[in-house]
Sequence to fold (105 residues):
Amino acid sequence: MSGVLLLTWLAGCTALPYGHKDGERPATVIEIGRTAELIARRSDTCPPAHGDEVLVLLRYTGNSHLRWRAFPLPPGVDVKEGDRVLLDVNACRFKKMESAACVRC
Fold:
């Protein structure tokens, strides 16, 4: 009986509010702009840059390592430093995230 309770408890703790295996990661906005450092940190999962796109440096965990990568600011997304976002690394986009949904960013 205690084994069943333990497994139920563990299953509840491992449920994530995002699709980690699909490339989704909770992230924190570190910097916004178009500096040489941000351009150098632009994620290689994104298509080539076009024009004067604004970049957002995000801190997130990928494959058990803390990462800092810059992603283009999507149209209509209003973020500031310290905001939590849901990053889709594979699609090169992010959206603002409800703070309650992000346990450890």
